[in-house]
Amino acid sequence: MMPSARRLVTSLLFLMAASSAAPASEMPRIVHQQGRHALLVDGAPYLILGGQAHNSSNYPLALDKVFAAIGDMHANTLEIPVAWEQIEPVEGQFDFSYVDALLKQARQHQVRLVLLWFGTWKNTSPSYAPAWVKFDNARFPRMLDRQGKPNYCLSPHASSTLQADRKAFVRLMQHLKQVDSAERTVIMMQVENEVGTYGYARDYAPAAEQLFSGPVPAAVLAYKKPQQPQAPGATWRQAYGAYADEYFHAYAIASYIEEIAKAGRAVYDLPMYVNNAQRDSTESPLLPWHENFASGGPTYDVIDIYRAAAPHIAFAGPDIYDPDWNKFNASLQHFQRTDQPLMVPEMSNGANYVRYLWLVLGRGAIGVAPFGIDYAAYSNYPLGHKASDRSMVAPFGAIYAAFRPMQRQWARWAYEGRTYGVAEGDDRQPQNIAMQGWNASISFREWQFGEREYFKELKDHPAGTEIPNGGVAIAQTGDKEFIIIGQHARIKISHAQGQPSMWARVEQGHFDARGNWIMERNWNGDQTDYGLNLGATPVVLKVKLDTY
Ligand code: DGJ
Predict the structure, then answer these.
(1) Which of 14, 161, 198, 464 has the highest CB neighbour count under 10 A?
(2) Are residues 534 and 447 in the same domain?
(3) Does any domain span residue 423?
(4) Range of the structural domain that residue 443 is part of
(5) Alpha helices, DSSP H only, in 416-534?
């Protein structure tokens, strides 16, 4: 063969090999190891630094204000609704123009999407179902109360409603498969929104009554252990006593959601989850439902029932709208489990929630999303921030900006169990973190220089610490090495066995796009003599300690 012909064949072979080796972008999926979890996007762990749009921003002309806020927040992921009423306003006639506009803009802004399916239930109500569903009680029955009177909530026992919702959701997934398989802009689906029923423990319609007096499915008994061992065939009341009505309703809704998720994933296999309007996370003892939360929703006490009934749902996540530090911590403890990842699909965008990003991300969550990240002329104050402007997103944005360049590394460290986090408590007191061979103590409202006792006459505090807003997240990257990121906090690290130790190196810097560490400054002297003192602007430190 002539050398030039050989070259041509070689390059052709190279091109063919290159094109066959070019990986089709991988489906997002959730993986598990040793009771920890990661969301893989494009084949690698991904940290959702998210924001959720307002409820009514799911229309093309409303998106500019959403993406402007998401951009200012440095979020890498937008959570936004797709409503049943908008994709199937007339039965059987589907309209995906909003979904297409959304995908286009998300790609332009290099933001991934988590789509929220507002179908049969949105905050328990059928408000986002099409009119042909929500006003046809005969075909799409509402739940009945004990007197047989319909209430506001659609029944989870109606196969007609399930079929209609499932059909619309499947069409949505088919459409996503068609228009997004190559780019994978959509990385996850939330099925329904804050399901359950307010004011009613369960459906009392005849069909539901019959099921309630029948046996608890074996899968439920296996996951959600009754207080006393039960013979197969035990009824809900026999097995769960005063908790039976709530558990039965949870099972009914979880089973309904399972049918939707299963059918959707069969078409296009994205990870799917449910979110939860919480019950009091610190209630002790845990009492049976007494109109104090939405019965049947995936509250922490019934996660086992959801796991038993809905294997196509990867996890239930808490929506957190109580700024109390104890309750916030308790919620995370309830929802971070060896059998499901922690993700906070919603939390308030109020200033007193900013600190919780450190806690959630430090605990190894796969993601978090403050709610109402949107410059629409609407604010959900007093639940969230008063103003819909940059003052709302900027504090969250400062933290996301620091995390974002290393979100892939952080997600991997979290998957490996190397990460820790604290948020400043309402009591403003120091906190400790036990790491591998080392202990960190974190204190708040300190000046960057010196110890408090040196300056006893000084009563003031650093500007910007008027409310508890400090926090730290630490990844232990080696035996003696850490990545520390935080704000409004002082960190000291000591050897767990009490050996004398000192900072070996404290570099401030960032990771570049290739994952290389870029050092900007080497902290020593005043910057390390009194611990590592992090101010208002979050910084990333690469830290090494050693003993002597
Ligand atoms: C939680 C819901 O899931 C959101 O859609 C929204 O209604 C907030 N509550 C309140 O703003």
Answers:
(1) 161
(2) yes
(3) no
(4) 431-547
(5) 526-529
pTM, whole model, 2 decimals?
0.95
CATH code of the domain containing 180 = 3.20.20.80
Q: How far is the CA of 38 from the centre of ligand 1 (A)?
A: 26
Let me know whether 407 and 446 are in one domain: no
Gap from CA of 187 to ligand 1 centroid (Å): 21
The pLDDT tens digits of the residues spanning 223-271 come to: 999 988 888 899 999 999 999 999 999 999 999 999 999 999 999 999 9
The label of the residue with tokens 């995370």 reads 332
8 within domain boundaries: no
Counted domains in the chain: 2
Q: Which of 357, 388, 417 is the last residue of a domain?
A: 417
Supply angle C-alpha 83, 84, 90, rounded to 5.
130
Contact 489, 443 (CB under 8 A): yes
- In DSSP terms, which residues pair with 506 in a beta bridge? 543
Q: Collapse the DSSP code of 17 into the 3-class scheme (helix H, G, I; strand E, B; otherwise coil) and give the result.
A: helix
165 residue type, one letter: D
Going edge to edge, which strands form the sheet with 532-534? 431-434, 438-443, 489-495, 532-534
Nearest CA to ligand 1 atom 10: 380
Q: Which two tokens stand for residue 470?
A: 């400090």
Token duo for residue 358:
């450190």
